[in-house]
Amino acid sequence: MILYVNACARPDSRTDRLARALLQKLGPYEELRLYDEPLRPMDAHRIALRDALLSQKDYGAEMFRYARQFAAAEQIVLSAPLWDLSFPAQLKIYLENIFVTGIVTRYSEAGLPVGLCRAKKLYYVSTSGGPYDPRFGFDQLRAMATENFGIPEAELVKAELLDIDGCDPEAILHKAMAAYGLTETTDKEDGHAT
Ligand SMILES: Cc1cc2nc3c(=O)[nH]c(=O)nc-3n(C[C@H](O)[C@H](O)[C@H](O)COP(=O)(O)O)c2cc1C
Fold first, then answer.
1. What distance in angstroms lies between residue 93's CA and the mean position of ligand 1's atoms?
2. What is the pLDDT of residue 190?
3. What is the pLDDT of residue 185?
């Protein structure tokens, strides 16, 4: 199953539209809308709880459900607009919740990370108002995927310069879709498996 991790806040998100055009090409998917989830950042209490559960190897605990879902996915599409040279805070909170040693990664005797995720590829879909800068968004996710989670390939799918005065954001978005061999359907739920 393809997991679609949707970190787009706006109802008419261009990033979400680009991601759905990609998903239409990839096939049926399960969607996780991060802004509809009761995600909470790690704090002292939750770190202590996580440490206690991991010391008992209780990987089935409720707080690890997002990590289990991520580790089990066959392919992952993650959508997030460029915000403040990075991605929305809700995605960072999600990453804090899935980065669980024993579920998405483990450490070898030499102390090196060994990925435990099933997916062979992660697509990172993003749009930006100005030029797209991958340094603190895509590059971070690619490092996590390839160096920690065991996902060998990460690809950026992007549309940029959407908010520049005088530019036509619809034309730019459709040109970007065409460049990736994608087309958009009007039905947002097409291909949705749940
Ligand atoms: C909170 C916020 C921060 C943003 N920061 C940047 C930025 O650092 N660089 C940039 O080029 N665009 C930035 N933008 C513009 C968005 O990346 C752009 O409008 C994007 O297409 C929005 O995606 P969406 O339509 O999926 O919401 C920002 C927009 C918002 C709302």
1. 19
2. 54
3. 80
